[in-house]
Amino acid sequence: MTDVIIAGGGPTGVMLACELRLHGVRALVLEKEAEPTRIVRALGLHARSIELMDQRGLLDRFLALGKRYPVGGFFAGIAKPPLDRLDTAHPYVLGIVQTATERLLNERAAELGVEIRRRCELVGLSQDDEGVTAELADGTRLRSRYLVGCDGGRSTVRRLLGVGFPGEPTRVETLLGEMELTATPETLAAVVAEVRKTQLRFGAMPLGDGLYRVGVPAEGVAPDRSVPPTLAEFKRQLRAHAGTDFGVHSPRWLSRFGDATRLAERYRVGRVLLAGDAAHVHPPTGGQGLNLGLQDAFNLGWKLAAAVGGWAPEGLLDSYQTERQPVAASVLDNTRAQMELMSTEPGSQAVRRLVSELMDFPEVHRYLIEKVIAIGIRYDFGEGHELLGRRLRDVPLKQGRLYERMHGGRGLLLDQTGRLSVAGWADRVDHIVDTSEELDVPAVLLRPDGHVAWTGDDQQDLLGHLPTWFGAPAA
């Protein structure tokens, strides 16, 4: 019996496996596809996901393959100057294609000893008090203590669990692909700029070596959206919207995506959980999908490891749904709003103009952008200091910086008093005595995901909070 089976080898599943391995949990990833996909749906990482990579010592790898862009124009494509003084040490968007992100995560998984089995499709599951039995398409049965469905919006795990997935079906569809074209860069830029004055789902972005990423609204919603569009369909829609097909040819891949918006009613059924697109789907506006899944994995990983390790306090694993489901609901709402603002209907365009005016107020612009880049999230830990429940940005310390001390995925007590102790929890919580000019509390207790669980300077008060997140003290 392995500890955790993860169905789905995309970014969410592999990130989760890496988090589990930091705690010595045996993780087996099952992926039905024989090879990594060439389809690039996500184009970058937002600030909170960049922070996650920094907290685990992976950021340099991503920076080497990506390009930094100012944070601006990410809410419904409304162009505004980049914001300054964001509450993060990483106030930028990292442009990096999904295929590169997946490759880096797979390399990290290999370093940590994660087993990834391809051509393994889960078709059935059952569970009891001791664990979960997974049935594969070839008849193989595997046993684990827990199973997590990270298998996408058409999740087999979610369907087998009978978990409801209410929401709205796709109403508008967009064709997407990578291809070559014969039009000159000047012609392409001029036509795209003109069309995007009214149709923001249209675009063509150079990728280098004569290759372009092209997107165009579809004529309607395909009866079977799993069937990719043809090049002829692509050309027809380009001519309909731009008056030219730019001479597109030699496609690397073609795909379609819609604006379906759905949220799983439950994230956990017994020993089986859902994460990433298996738990929520939404339009790609703002580039939030991959990021939301990575952040699900970051929240779940240490909690599931605690359950496997036997030290999880009561309710810790259930807090995954309590914390992450509202975050997903908020993302669904903001993408719904963005889709309305991108509509060509006169009423939607009137609201877009009004929202654009409101975003000239820095507070409004900041509020909306923080929603997209996920640094404004605050989990409900009850009353307390304004930092409570929020993630703490990477603050400089007298000896280094905060995120450098979080690579192991453990809890952390940053103690500026030098008088506190985590005796009894030293196997789960690191104790660092150091100071930061940017931290105005005597001490702060961070969960492994970087969210603030306690602030103060009283040892007895600290002892009252450690068990909430890190279980009973060691004997």
TrEMBL record:
NCBIfam families referenced in this protein's UniProt entry, alphabetically: rif_monoox (NF033145)
InterPro entries: FAD-bd, FAD/NAD-bd_sf, RIFMO-like
UniProt keyword annotation of Flavoprotein present: yes
A GO molecular-function descriptor: FAD binding
Cofactor: FAD
Organism field: Allonocardiopsis opalescens
Domain FAD-binding, first and last residues per copy: 2-335
Keywords: FAD, Flavoprotein
Protein name in the entry: 2-polyprenyl-6-methoxyphenol hydroxylase-like FAD-dependent oxidoreductase
Top-level taxonomy: Bacteria, Bacillati, Actinomycetota, Actinomycetes, Streptosporangiales
Pfam families, alphabetized: FAD_binding_3 (PF01494), Rng_hyd_C (PF21274)
SUPFAM superfamilies with a match to the protein in the record: FAD/NAD(P)-binding domain
